[in-house]
Design brief:
heterodimer, A: mainly alpha, B: 441 residues, alpha+beta, three-stranded mixed sheet
Chain lengths: 372, 441
Amino acid sequence: MHPELRAVDTPEESRSVTSNILRTWDTFWFTPADPTTLAFMRICCGLLVFYVHLTYSWGLLAYVGPEAWVDKELADHIQRDIPVYSLPWNWSDQTTQVGAGNYYWSVYFHVTDPAWIIGIHVAFVAAPLLFGLGLFTRFTGLVTWLAAMSYVQRASNTVFGLDTMMMIVLAYLNIGPSGATLSLDRWLQVRRAQRRGQPIPEVEPSYAANFAIRMTQIHFCVIYFATGTSKLLGSTWWAGTSLNLVLLNPAFTPLDTRPYYELMKFLATHRLLWEVVMTAGIVYTLVLEIAFPFLVWDRRWRWLLICGSVMLHLNIGLAMGLVTFSLMMMIMVSSFIPPEVMRGLIDDLVDSVTSLWRPSETAQLGKLAISR
Amino acid sequence: MTGWTERFSHWSRPWVLLLTGLGLSLVGWLCAKLLPPYLTLGLLLTGFGFAISAVTRRLREETWAWPDRTESAAVVSLATMTAILGYDAMQRDWVSGHLFFGAVFFLGLAGSTLILLPSLLRRVALSLFVLFHFTGMAVCVTSVDPPNYTGLYVSKQLWTWIYRPYLSFMYMTNAYHFYAPDPGPPELFWFAVRYDDDSYAWVKLPHRENSPIGMHYQRMLALPAHTFGAMNRLPYSTAELALVTPAQRPRRGSWEEIYYRREMGSTLEYRRLEKPYLLPIPMVLDMDVSWQYREPNDTSKKTIASVARRIFWTAPLPRDAEGNVKPNVRPRSVKVYRVVHHVLTPAELAKGISPLEKTKHWPYFLGEFDASGNLVDEMDPFLYWFLPIAVVPAGYPNHGQSSRPGVPAIHARSVPPKDGFLLDCLEMHAAGRRRTAEEKK
């Protein structure tokens, strides 16, 4: 049996398999958890989404304006009129139209005045920053999700993997109490209690925090499993040439920079070296992506897999320029870090920072705000 | 109790917030026809914001004891009223608002029911939601067609009839087939902006130097891949057209007519920057025709037109050879090319071939568009065809290869002849063909 599950199991041999499964399921999904990991994800995700939204400022109207890459007329067509087809219920090949339009929604489908667009954009840039800082977290979290949705659905032909991951993480962060700790909300709560002369309230373990973390973890496993197994259909992954197509891709990789070009050329002029490096890369990618969903639940493997995943995304970020995508994937994989470990790391970090100067009232208050 | 935090705490009691939210939403709903739309929207959203704050605050104080739960459920239910008011007050064409408030209504309904349920039933309900949600993920993953087959029938039906509203609304429709089954070459968009004086200038997307930040470059890199979607078959043949209704007949005619026009296009002379200054664009003999002709699907055609229109209105100013802006010269049209940039093999890299080698670019002509995004010539012989960039024999076009008498042809993918020269049909097509005396008039 899984070591983590053994701890919650009772030694009754007579318990049926079904009741074991149900108990495991219940423990997995419905055990209160410390929201520290979720709060850490909120900070990272909020700041990253803030950056992503800020970058829309360069050419804002090209993304969401009435004459954007997808202009207003086309956007309306996609949202309301595009035909939806269904496969037949019998063995014929004839598809039938069963509806029109998509369930896409965005403020920018309707706001076309540039002044209003800019105004809304400013609010949509500010929301993730406040969310990251943890101010009025429930509200700013919702606005951040709504804002992110408004960009990705309206500027639908300029989205990439980052946007997909961003929407997943934001949705789950909105489920859990991501502002319960490591946040300005918590700081205000502590301050309020101190002013009233009441004891500092504890950060309670939360069912919703556990639920949100579990949703993120399972979704991450689905992503890895799907991307790993779908690669097994590709001949280049079997032939050992897939990474050639990735690492020599001139649009993604920094082939125009001398060091990267020279490195690739050096490898290419030594065929055995090239083949060994590429084969190792392929095996690493496939084994990690396919094994991760199964082994990450075992504490013995967890750290190795988390580090392996971080390494993979570090490489994707550096070699392919997909830095924001890689950061978002790292945020997702951080959901597997146990809250007590996360709490320890953050406490150490805070201790190191606060010891740099004489502890002041503000620093002590700050420490209280993030402590339990 | 003193200080602003205490005063704030007093005013932020759930029922005060909730009633304020309901009041604002009610005013917005009542005055929807009297007030300007933005004011109505402001009232509705502010009211909704207050209601959300009320729910948040109430759930934070929730003890999950029975009488408390009924109060919490009441707060959530009443907060849902703001969504109903918002839904009803929204103008008819604010589809996004209807979708949003509709979803909030269902969420509120589910939320208040969950609160009222006893612990065990609540867990069962949430478990069912988890199963529903992740079955949706599985549906997305498995409804994508694997190579040479169609995806799971059951997944496709589940997608169409069950999951499409939920997953589209949540933007969780990705199949997560990253770099699978095989990593593909990057696609680029190159636009030839043509001016009144018959000159042209290139706009190339993406372009690292023209992107102010990395994210902009990444988004421009995504643009061609999302804009272009090919039809899944060649156009109807003459025999197939005989079976379709007149309404279904494509304006460009049958496949045989399209192919014939393409061959006739190879008899026309196009301008070059080098000697000889006029040459025809050849047929290509060593590529399957289904790879040479890539007609976009209907939605893709509309999207390409939208992109071309934007390029037209943001076109660079025409400049002469010295770089000075030409006065009184305006853009006339935009030719759109989708360029598949094939990746070097390690062997080519070892030989020192540049990753930007011209022959590694495979351009496809997607049409010439005017200021309104309309196709200038729907019968253009090269529309949706591959334009070779290849080294051709020195004697071209009289090098002895043709697809039919008088129609020059080349082998674009074979080993290039040693004494040949580079024929850049993309540049030739962008420059345009030699106009007849009648056309010049």
